[in-house]
C-alpha cells in the first residue's frame, strides 16, 4: 500500500513569522493517520517551520537546492544545508523553475541523484504545457521528463521518489485536469517506472497530481487508482484549507 502524500508548495509566500504562526494553527490538525503531510516553504522560513513543527508528524520540505555539496554558486543552497535544518523533502524541477530559472531535465536529474546523499526525498515535477497537450504530446513530454529525472537511480532510491504530475496549464489557473485524465497520465508514468526499473518499484513509487487542487476537489483525485496524493500551491497557504486537504486525502 502506498501512503498518500499531501505536499503544500508555498512558492514565494510567507515570512518566517508567518510560517511559525501557520505551524501552530495546523499542528494536531493537518495530522491524519495514514497520510503524509509536508509543507514546502521558502528557504528563509525553513528554520522557524522545522522548529515550530517539532513533535508533530508534519514534515518540512524545500522548493529547490543545488546538487553540489558547496562551492562558488552565489545565491544557492546545498542539500547539506537543508539536512542540517531537519528538512526531509525537496521539490525538484517545478515548472516555474523550469520556465523562469532555466532548470533542464539534466539539472533535475543531478538534483534527484544528489537529494539521496542528504536524506532528502525528492518530489520531482513533470508535466506538459497547454500547447503540448493540444498537440497530443502529453505522454511524450511526461516520458522524456520522467525517464531523464530518474536516470542513474538505484531501484531502492527510485521507489522512494515522489513524482508530481503537474500539467502546466492547470497550475494556479483554477483549471484543473479531470481526475480521470490525471489518473490516465499518472498510470502511464507508473508504466514508465516499471519499464525503467521493475514492476515492484512502479507499485511502490508515489505519484501525486498537482494543478488547482482545492479542498472541494481533492477527494475526486484521491479516489483514483493511481493518484497517491497532491502537490498544492494556492490552497496550501491558508491553515484551514491545508487541514481540509490533508483530511481529504
Ligand atoms: C503548484 O505550485 O505546484 C501548484 C500545483 O499550484 P496550484 O495548486 O496553485 O495550482
TrEMBL record:
HAMAP family: TIM_B (MF_00147_B). PANTHER family: TRIOSEPHOSPHATE ISOMERASE (PTHR21139:SF42). It catalyses: D-glyceraldehyde 3-phosphate = dihydroxyacetone phosphate. Keywords: Cytoplasm, Gluconeogenesis, Glycolysis, Isomerase. Pfam families: TIM (PF00121). Substrate binds at residues 9-11, 172, 212, 233-234. PROSITE patterns: TIM_1 (PS00171), TIM_2 (PS51440). InterPro entries: Aldolase_TIM, TIM_sf, TrioseP_Isoase_bac/euk, Triosephosphate_isomerase, Triosephosphate_isomerase_AS. Its EC number is 5.3.1.1. Coiled coil: none annotated. It is an enzyme of class 5 (isomerase). Homodimer. Belongs to the triosephosphate isomerase family. The gene is tpiA. Gene3D superfamilies: Aldolase class I. NCBIfam families: tim. The lineage of its organism: Bacteria, Bacillati, Bacillota, Bacilli, Bacillales. Involved in the gluconeogenesis. Catalyzes stereospecifically the conversion of dihydroxyacetone phosphate (DHAP) to D-glyceraldehyde-3-phosphate (G3P). One of its GO terms (molecular function) is triose-phosphate isomerase activity. Pathway: Carbohydrate biosynthesis; gluconeogenesis; Carbohydrate degradation; glycolysis; D-glyceraldehyde 3-phosphate from glycerone phosphate: step 1/1. It is found in: Cytoplasm. This is Triosephosphate isomerase. The active site is at residues 94, 166.
Amino acid at each position: 500500500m502506498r501512503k498518500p502524500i499531501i505536499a503544500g508548495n508555498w512558492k514565494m509566500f510567507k515570512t518566517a513569522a508567518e510560517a511559525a504562526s501557520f505551524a501552530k494553527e495546523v499542528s494536531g490538525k493537518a495530522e491524519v493517520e495514514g497520510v503524509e503531510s509536508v509543507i514546502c516553504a521558502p528557504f528563509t522560513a525553513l528554520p522557524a517551520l522545522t522548529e515550530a513543527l517539532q513533535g508533530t508528524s508534519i514534515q518540512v520540505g524545500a522548493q529547490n537546492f543545488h546538487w553540489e555539496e558547496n562551492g562558488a554558486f552565489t545565491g544557492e543552497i546545498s542539500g547539506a544545508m537543508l539536512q542540517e535544518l531537519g528538512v526531509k523533502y525537496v521539490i525538484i524541477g517545478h515548472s516555474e523553475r523550469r520556465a523562469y530559472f532555466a532548470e533542464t531535465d539534466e539539472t533535475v536529474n543531478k538534483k534527484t541523484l544528489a537529494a539521496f546523499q542528504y536524506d532528502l526525498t525528492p518530489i520531482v515535477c513533470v508535466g506538459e504545457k497547454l500547447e503540448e497537450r493540444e498537440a497530443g504530446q502529453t505522454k511524450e513530454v511526461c516520458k522524456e521528463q520522467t525517464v531523464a529525472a530518474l536516470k542513474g537511480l538505484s531501484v531502492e532510491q527510485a521507489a522512494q521518489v515522489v513524482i508530481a504530475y503537474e500539467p502546466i496549464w492547470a497550475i494556479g489557473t483554477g483549471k484543473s485536469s479531470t481526475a480521470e485524465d490525471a489518473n490516465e497520465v499518472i498510470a502511464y508514468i507508473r508504466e514508465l517506472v516499471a519499464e525503467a526499473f521493475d514492476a515492484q518499484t512502479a507499485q511502490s513509487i508515489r505519484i501525486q497530481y498537482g494543478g488547482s487542487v482545492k479542498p472541494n476537489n481533492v477527494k475526486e483525485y484521491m479516489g483514483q487508482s493511481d493518484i497517491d496524493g497532491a502537490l498544492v500551491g494556492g490552497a496550501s497557504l491558508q491553515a484551514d484549507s491545508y487541514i481540509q486537504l490533508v483530511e481529504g486525502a
